[in-house]
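Bumping with the actual sequence this time:
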Amino acid sequence: MKKIFALIAAVLPALAMASTEGVHLDKHLTDLTDKASLQRGAKTFMNYCMGCHSLEHARFNRMAKDLDIPEALMMENLVFDTDKKFGDLATIGMQVEDSKKWFGATPPDLTLVARVRRPDWVYTYLRSFYVDPSRPWGVNNVVFKDVGMPNVLAALQGNQHLGTAPVTVGYDTLTGQPITEEQEHTLYLAEEGQLSEAEFDNLVFDLVNFLTYSAEPIAVERQRLGWWVLLFLAIFFVPVYMLNKEFWRDVK
């Protein structure tokens, strides 16, 4: 049984990336020490994602502590279920039967999505929705073809289309002006949203930063302790080496 679980754990990341074959993934420069970014990401998640997706392995009080959010502020502005307590898990009230009826499948829990899919995948995915009238929700996604999820951030981003559009391929060395060429199968913004492209990218960056934190809340502490462990091993090596040398001194 243990071997089966180990095999599943090894295969999951490969399956997760299978749908991205041939798709360029934009780099997400994760920074788990940026508390302001994590706070903004938590705000975006609670307002736009938590209606359908839970963080069932995370607790509100742990998030508040790690992100430096006061309890009163957390419960008043980021926890919308009045029945929830500060120490409760970040689950949602949507029933499995209802979710299957509405979406065709139960929306997954997102606590570990950044570890299974990786931050680059999530960052690119959330910015790659485009209008597709043939789909039930009217949108499709370049990274995850035929995904059964609506573009909940469309009002902020605007509506993207997939087609032929000018793409910057370089810059003129004399004038500094961009050099563009028409390319097929390109995402382009057909209808502007509430945010500019840069502002929307920053919003998604913060959201993915938060999801990366939720996947491993101890990551920063683990990295900090790692340096102390390496320092201890380096110091401990000296007496071990001297003891080993003394032990074998008389052995010929």
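The tokens above came from a reply further down the thread. The first helix runs from residue 2 to 18.
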